[in-house]
Amino acid sequence: MVFRRAGQILAVIAVHLFVFFIFPHALFASALGAAYGDLAKGQYKSARDGFVRAAKASPKSVKPLIGLARVYRARGKAKRELDFIERARKMAPNSPLVLNTWGEYLLLRGRAGEAHSAFHRATRADGSPWKAWTNLGRARLRLGDFEGARLAFEHVVDAYNQTPRNDYESLIAAAVAASHTNDKKGALRLLTRATRMVNVVPVEALIASGHLFYSTYQVGDAISDFKTALKLNPRNADALAGLAKCKKHDRQYNHAALLANKAITTNVFCLPAYLLLAHIKLVENDTAAVNEYVAKVEAVDSGHPELLAIKASERFIANDLVSMEKVLEKRHSVAPNDGSLLLALGRLAMLQRRNSEAERFLRRGLERNPRDAQLYKALGEILIRDGRGTEARQMLERAHRIDRHMVTVVNYLKVLDYMAEEYVVSVPKEDVIVHTELRDGFWRPRLINEVKGLVTRYRNSYAYNHSRPLIVEIFPEQKWLAARAVGLPFIPALGVCFGRVVCVDSPLVKSKPFHWRAVLAHELSHAFTLGVTEGRIPRWFTEGLAQLDEKAERPLEQVRSFKLYAELNELPEMDKFERSFLRPRSPYDISSAYYQAYLATRWIRERYGEQGIRKMLKALSDKRVEPASVLY
Predict the structure, then answer these.
(1) How far is Cα 349 from Cα 351, in angstroms, rounded to an integer?
(2) Coil, helix or strand for 217?
């Protein structure tokens, strides 16, 4: 009887435990898990409803409130996101989950100092997630504390090596930290494990993997991961912005802009999308569009380093160097060791062929951060383009020691090795150096004489002598020319000009037939027009002059493309002409642009003669706003 009574009591207790504790907890966990799954898939309405059910099942838990905040963050609803974070902070002000989420909100809005404080408190709390340490490192990077960031990231990596956590969020945090400590392979292994986890929608892991592949110059793999993430969640703004970045890298600018605009439609606070669009418009010299996108970012995060880089670049293009230095000072007052703005300016100057200014920017950047591989790489590119192979090798080797994933650096070093072993240097005159692999008595003197004749002609027509020797490099294979020019094995060009250094394919290159003398004349013409103007000549003008200097018939595809655009009334206005060279929509764009430049320059020469051309070039070198005004 006693045992029966005891059994009944235990049964009643078990029922009460199930009804009041186990069942609500199971209901809460189930609702929370389903809501996070819906959030990852981009099903925001059902995710919101799931978090609401979880909140009802466990009113004292902050997890549903944080989940709701993340739903509204993904949708770009900043006020609603902040409402739920504030409610969670009132309930559990010292919770590491709440502190980490609060810090993320602050960091996205440029309040890096406050975010750092929140993340630091989160890392000191019991049971702090590794994500808090990873975010602490990101906040320190934003503040320019590179050493502190390294220590935060290494803490996560060491913690994982000592006591591995195999939950989804910890794997991603450890992978991101590993990527910042240059352990790219280890980071990729962790992300691969995360993407293969059962009962998880691995969108966040795929996006992190995409960014990792992009940082190691494996753009094809990055595109694959971003596309896979978008299949799982077509509305994920981070994945759209990441894919847009890859398309921009592949020079598919229209597609990149389309994806960036789609990301903004999904989440109006997707700052990477605005910044990407501003970059595209900056190179197109569309100041109005740049200012529009800059204003959008500035309203959210006025101190964003990439935003400041765009503003400084815009001032540089306008030759407003005083304002440019003020923008640099704004960033360096917060992060004195940050060379990223100077890197951006150096790359822009390089793109505009203003190599001496690019070199100055990059050296200033290295003074601030002598551990930045990208600065060494960019400076190495400038030096190799300027014919200073020994100095270039030193910079490129330093970049390679810091980051061994840079394919272009490896290729540049191979080119320098090849040229040191194979090339014979000829000096027909003190101020012209010809590098060629050819040693036979038939081709060698003919090539050198051709160079000498063209150089003499241009010195007379442009009334200009280079202050240092002019270097002409003749390559026996297309792959070496491509690697010399861009660090990759292929470019659709037979010659390139970097200023005083001209590189062309040999007439013996086994490709489609081409007019070798016209290619050499074209590139040497660039060497003189860039030299006269110190690189400030518009692209259409230097290309037009180079085509005139070829003294050859225009290719048929140029004429056909130009006629097609003329019939469709789609020829660009002269003030928007540069875009056709810098951001062509198709091969027809660039062919038509070359012919239009040829016609415009021919008209100037016929109307105003060689003296008019010289006046325009002199005006460009004097930094006048309207070079054409000197003709009237």
Answers:
(1) 5
(2) coil
**Higher pLDDT, residue 598 or 216:** 598
State the pLDDT at residue 364.
95
In eight-state DSSP terms, residue 427 is E
Could you tell me if 519 and 505 are in contact, meaning their C-beta atoms sit under 8 angstroms apart?
yes
Angle at 292 between CA 290 and CA 296, to 5 degrees: 115
Beta-bridge partners for 402: none
Beta pairing, strands 501-505 & 470-475: parallel
| Alpha-carbon Rg for the chain in angstroms | 30
Tokens of 283: 């190179």
Unique residue bearing structure tokens 């000592």: 162
DSSP string for residues in 34-95: HHHHHHHHT-HHHHHHHHHHHHHH-TT-SHHHHHHHHHHHHTT-HHHHHHHHHHHHHH-TT-
Longest Cα–Cα distance of the chain, Å, equals: 122
In sequence order, the 6+-apart residues with CB closer than 8 A to the CB of 203 are: 40, 41, 229, 232, 233, 236, 239
Q: Tens digit of pLDDT for each residue in 160-217?
A: 888 887 788 888 999 999 988 888 888 989 999 888 887 778 899 999 999 999 988 8
* Choice between 587 and 374, residue whose per-residue pLDDT is larger: 374
Minimal CA–CA distance to 246: which of 283, 270, 212? 212
Sheet holding 424-429, edge to edge: 424-429, 432-436, 470-475, 501-505, 495-497
- pLDDT recorded at residue 70: 92
Q: Where are the alpha helices (DSSP H) in 467-569?
A: 478-486, 516-533, 539-550, 556-567
Nearest to 39 by CA among 29, 28, 51, 56: 51
Asked if 212 and 225 touch (Cβ cutoff 8 Å), the reply is no
Q: 632 burial class (0-12, 13-18, 19+ CB within 10 angstroms)?
A: exposed
d(CA 534, CA 292): 31
CA dihedral over 437, 443, 444, 446, signed as positive or negative = negative
Predicted pLDDT of residue 327:
92
Task: State the amino acid at position 531 in one-letter form.
Answer: G
Q: Is the distance from CB of 190 to CB of 175 less than 8 angstroms?
A: yes
